[in-house]
Here is the input.
Amino acid sequence: MPKESGVSAVAVVAAFAVLAVAGTGFLAWQSTEQLGRAQTELDAAKSGLNKARADLRQATQDLAVAAGQSLAPAREADSLLAALGTPADRARFTAVADSARQVVQRCAQERRQRDTAHADSARFGVR
Here is the structure.
């Protein structure tokens, strides 16, 4: 009888070891799956960020053109404006450009105020 209890104890320990290895393998497999999902989400976020960056760059260029701060040389812009023809067209264009310029300046001023307030709150620990 003592021989049988020794064999059954070895069998229980071996079964326990097999279950422990299987459990560890399952946890490793789950972690790999989670890592794969996280990598996929990270790639999607990077793609979205790159698209947003491109959209922002395009919007900045469009706004600069609308505000009369085009990257085109001034003489080219003047020749385009002169080619429009009537003084009424030029007056409308000038009014729109002035309005857009004011909006851009106001937005820039508000941004500076927000940045200053954020820097102050970060410096003094206010949230």
